[in-house]
Amino acid sequence: MFRAPGRVNLVGEHTDYSGGFCMPAAINFETMIAASLLAGRTLRLRSVDFNETVEVDLDALPPARSHWSSYPLGVVWSLQQEGVAVPGAALTITGDVPQGAGLSSSASIEVATATALLALAGVEIPGPRLAKICQRAENDYVGAPCGIMDQFISANGAQGSALILDTRALTFDLAPLPEHLRLVICNSMVKHSVAEGGEYALVRQQVEEGAAAIHAMKPSVKELRDATLEDLEAAKGTMSEAAYKRARHVITDSQRVLDGAALLRAGDIVGFGKVLIDAHRSYRDDFEASCEECDVLQELGQGLKGCYGSRLTGGGFGGCTVNLVEAEDAESFVDAIRKGYFEKTGIEAEVYICSTADGASEMKGWE
Fold first, then answer.
1. Which end of the chain has less Cβ packing within 10 Å, N or C?
2. Would you please indicate which residues are annotated as catalytic (active-site) residues?
3. Are strands 89-95 and 42-47 parallel, antiparallel or unpaired?
4. 61: exposed, middle or buried (C-beta count within 10 Å: 0-12, 13-18, 19+)?
5. What is the number of alpha carbons within 13 Å of residue 89 lying toward its C-beta?
6. Structure pTM?
7. Which residues, including other chains, have CB under 8 Å from residue 140's CB and lie 6 or more apart?
8. Cβ neighbour number for residue 217 with a 10 Å cutoff
């Protein structure tokens, strides 16, 4: 039996394609896989949750389609690209990572599949490299242009900690999240069309415009990761106002990851909560990636007892807020925010109380 967790991002949004830092945490919602060897070259995938079975020939993988099986099949393909001799196997898959809630159910499935198949093949691969293999599965087989963060935290997370990921070097460090805290994730149940439309690509183009303008003035700045706010101000007149604001968010949010990590290591939870609030303001005002419903959720959460900080998390334009809440107040927080959100929007929010979790592993003593 093998498992891999979902995740929530605490700080650092849209920093990955600028070589910056982000701070995800693995959570106690996970994909679980029972795996056994099969004779021959057959791979049998059984989804308990979809009540479906798919069988394929490992030497003739089918093309990806809009189906749950494409995620584990993409991992098989990517492992084969890596030179791993994937054996015939039966994988029975289940999990409790909510789908469509921005908690990275796809990366959880990918990393759990890779962990199971590598164990059956008798091959060991370090967590950072495993994350790259799973990212390639999603990018090049499934066809989803995700960054590295989701797979990286699912493979390398640690219970009791947030992970500080350097997306350029693919190195990481940990910062403690005390046991008396919970990560309460509130799903607004809305996703505005901007998230899938051309505007999303436009936002990235604006980030790249800002980086190019700074680079033209200061060639040592290859990515926004290398830029300071002083660099941005010096080049402000050579970029659009939108590019300036997007770049300011990326530069400051990447720095907030480092500042937040220092506060967590110092035990300053109040200070870290303020970092979350500042991150939301930046995401809302400079990146313009929030929406009315998510702002309502953030404001409600921020005002409730036991909450240190609240912010929009994930790709933006809808989705979820993450709230840092005292464990003893978590249940009352859930009741109050669901009631308040419904009163203001008429929408029933889904709310999840999460603890931190370890990255992917074999499950011992599960019998």
1. C
2. 150
3. parallel
4. middle
5. 24
6. 0.91
7. 74, 78
8. 12
Q: What are phi and psi of 41, to 5 degrees?
A: -115, 35
Has residue 152 got a pLDDT over 80?
yes
Residue 146 to residue 153: CA distance in whole angstroms? 13
Distance between CA atoms of residues 116 and 103, nearest Å: 21
Q: Where are the alpha helices (DSSP H) in the chain?
A: 70-81, 105-121, 127-136, 149-156, 198-217, 229-235, 241-265, 269-285, 292-302, 330-345
Question: Side chain identity at 236, as an amino acid letter?
Answer: K
Q: Which residue, 131, 149, 110, 137, is CA-closest to 3?
A: 110
Q: What is the pLDDT of residues 288-306, one digit of tens each?
A: 989 999 999 999 999 999 9
The two three-digit tokens of residue 292, written as one number: 């009315």
Q: What are phi and psi of 198, to 5 degrees?
A: -65, -20
Give the length of the chain: 367
- Alpha carbon distance 235, 269 (integer Å): 36
Distance CA 146, CA 364 (A): 31
Using the structure block, give the residue that is written with the tokens 């300036």: 244
